[in-house]
Design goal:
The protein has helices spanning 32-47, 68-74, 90-103, 118-124, 149-164, 168-182, 196-200, 229-232, 265-276, 293-302, 311-314, 333-337, 344-356; strands spanning 14-21, 56-58, 80-82, 109-116, 204-206, 209-210, 220-228, 240-249, 285-288, 375-382, 387-395. By secondary structure, the chain is α/β, with parallel strands linked by helices. InterPro entries: Thiolase, Thiolase-like, Thiolase_C_2.
Length: 396
């Protein structure tokens, strides 16, 4: 008997109905489970939906059997679950999976939740840094040479400089603008303004990156609730609709990466925009993964905000600040606000808050006509440009 496959079609609109952060920054007295629970409770309160309505859970990065341990800790018994783990892009990929499940009727309300005490654990000696994420499989050919994660990003940045003439000052300016966005965020770990000279004069971590071009280490968690349109109608906040999503995976070994100047966001972004039916020119605010300044620059190119090789010039002159032509990482990003590990879920929280007009004075994005932003993009990157997930979101 020949199986007949029917292509799935979305029959139900999907919205983000609740978002929240746990305590973030320096959190010495909580466990990762505490932060998961705190963020989940706050997101549910934000949505106005009952806990009993949650029938889907997505979680990664904690426990032996994620997300089952988190479900047990939260007192949930989901009928749909996802534990996809692809680094920093995990949450955009999970959100895409959840949106598809909700659209198909496999779930009604899905909770995405994350929590990490990476900073506190390192400070207390509960964890140590390692040279490699693994030394078996493809990585065995690179790990013995001390090929650290930051070294991989640094090599890619140097290649971009070689190919396109991108300058140290342009990378540094991205850090300066991100810090300027953090200035008005009371929850950001670092808010004091910095200059290009401050960035360039700092200690070199991996050439060409100085300290201020690298993400901070923090504690923190967050949660996002997605729901079908019938459930969104009962939510306490205006829905933020998922217009389109795209995912992509690339290499693990750097030797298998065809072009150091092209990230997998080039594919995830194209798919997301095509499925959303919008163009990059229509985006009002962008939340991009920024473990290092080069990630911001190359993601701007790969999402189509500028041509390949023009990211350095595009990002100059305050363009990425809240009042600039394309506000990027409006909470201060991983460079200044928080970075507890897999930061991708924080991008979704900030994008939703911007679209709902809930950012603090001084960092709320406005369109040229004074109205709130209508379309946002959140794009996460995992590993050393090994994976990408991009979501296009919009308010009514």
């Amino acid at each position: 008997m020949t199986a007949v496959r029917t292509a799935s079609r979305r029959t139900r609109r999907v919205a983000v109905v609740g978002v929240a952060l746990s305590d973030c920054g320096r959190v010495d007295s909580a466990t990762p489970y505490d932060l998961h629970a705190q963020a989940a409770r706050r997101a549910l309160a934000d949505s106005g939906l009952a806990k009993a309505s949650v029938d889907g859970l997505a979680s990664a990065g904690l426990g032996t059997l994620a997300p089952m341990e988190i479900a047990d800790h939260l007192g949930l018994r989901p009928a749909w679950a996802d534990s996809t783990s692809v680094g920093g892009a995990t949450w955009e990929v999970m959100a895409a999976h959840a949106a598809d499940a909700i659209a198909a009727g496999h779930a009604n309300v899905v909770l995405l939740v994350y929590g990490s005490t990476a900073r506190a654990d390192l400070k207390a000696g509960r964890r140590t840094a390692g040279l490699s994420l693994g030394a078996r499989g493809p990585l065995q050919f690179e790990a013995p040479y001390g090929h650290t994660l930051i070294a991989k990003y640094a090599m890619a940045a140097r290649r971009h400089m070689h190919e396109y003439g991108t300058t140290l000052q342009q990378f540094a300016d991205i850090a300066v603008q991100t810090r300027a966005n953090a200035f008005h965020n009371p929850h950001a770990m670092y808010r004091d303004p910095i200059t290009v000279d401050d960035v360039l004069d700092g200690p070199v971590i991996a050439d060409p990156f100085t300290k201020l071009q690298c993400c901070i280490r923090s504690d923190g968690g967050c949660a996002v609730l997605l729901a079908g349109e019938d459930y969104a109608a009962d939510a306490a906040r205006p829905p933020v609709w998922v217009l389109g999503a795209g995912t992509a995976v690339s290499h693990t070994a750097m030797s298998e990466w065809e072009d150091f100047t092209v990230s997998p966001a080039a594919r995830s972004g194209r798919l997301a925009f095509e499925r959303a039916g919008v163009t990059p020119a229509e985006v009002d605010v962008a939340e991009l993964y920024d473990a290092f300044t080069y990630m911001t620059l190359v993601t701007l190119e790969d999402l189509g905000f500028c041509a390949k090789g023009e990211g350095g010039a595009f990002a100059e002159h305050g363009r990425l600040t809240v009042g600039g032509g394309l506000p990027v990482n409006t909470d201060g990003g991983g460079l200044s606000a928080c970075h507890p590990g897999m930061r991708g879920l924080f991008l979704l929280v900030e994008a939703v808050r911007q679209l709902r007009g809930e950012a603090e004075a001084g960092r709320q994005v406005r369109r040229r006509d004074g109205e709130l932003p209508r379309i946002a993009v959140a794009s996460g990157t995992g590993g050393w440009f090994c994976s990408a997930g991009t979501l296009v979101l919009a308010r009514d």
